[in-house]
Amino acid sequence: MSKQTQDKQIQQSIEKQRKKKLILDSPDSKETVTILPKQKVPSSSKLPKQFITKPKKKARLKQQTQEECPICMMNLDDVQNVCEIDACKHQICSTCIKEWAEKYKTQCPCCRAKFDFIYPIKDGKRENNPIKLNLNLPKWNQEEDEFYEDENNSDDEEKCQVCQCSHTPYLMLICDKCNDAFCHTFCDPAQLEFKVPTSNWYCLDCRKSKFIYNKHK
C-alpha cells in the first residue's frame, strides 16, 4: 500500500471522529451549526424519585362504575372521604351519608335499601372497620299521631317532605298544585332519575287527591 493511500485513510478516520457540521446557504458561508451526537433518554426506572409522577389514586373502589355522589353530585375521585354502604355496596361521600342518616333517613339515596353501617374507603380499598351511624330518631307525639320537632330547632328552610333535609336545593322539587310541598328528586319513589323532570310534578299528598287522579268522564 502506497504512502499516499495510507495518509488518505488516516485523514478519513480523523474526520469521522470530529463533530459533524452543517454548512448554511453556500459552501463559502462562514456560519455553521454544530450537530451534537444523539443522547440516550433515561427510562423512568432510572430517573430520580422526585421526577417520577405517580398516577392519581382513586378514592372509590376500582370495580365500581359509579362516579358521582348521589347527594352532592361531586366526583368521588375528587372527594377525600368516601364510604361504602353495607346493605347495597353503593359508594357515597361520608359527610353526605352521615348528614343523611342523622336526619331520619336510613335508606340508600340510590336504591333506598336500609342500612346500618358504612365502610370507609381508602386508596381504592374498603377498610374492614365498619362505622355505626348514630341516628337521632324523631320524637313521637302520640296525641297528634305524627312526628314533630322541637320549636327551638325549627327554621325557615325548605325541607324535603320525605327525608326532612334541606341540602341539595338544586335537586328539590316543588309541587305544581299546592306550591307548598318540597321533595328531593332522589327521595321520590316515582322518580327514576335524579334529574328534575320537565313535566309537572305533584307531591305525595296531592297525588292522593281526586283533583289529579279523577278521570274526566
From TrEMBL:
Source superkingdom: Eukaryota
Official protein name in the record: RING-type domain-containing protein
Biased composition range(s): Polar residues: 1-14
GO molecular function, one term: zinc ion binding
Transmembrane recorded as keyword: no
Coiled-coil stretches: none
Pfam family, one: zf-RING_2
Residue ranges of the region described as Disordered: 1-30
SMART domains, per database record: RING
Transmembrane parts of this sequence: none
PROSITE patterns in the record: ZF_RING_1 (PS00518), ZF_RING_2 (PS50089)
Keywords for this protein: Metal-binding, Zinc, Zinc-finger
Species name: Paramecium sonneborni
Sequence ranges assigned to domain RING-type in this UniProt record: 69-112
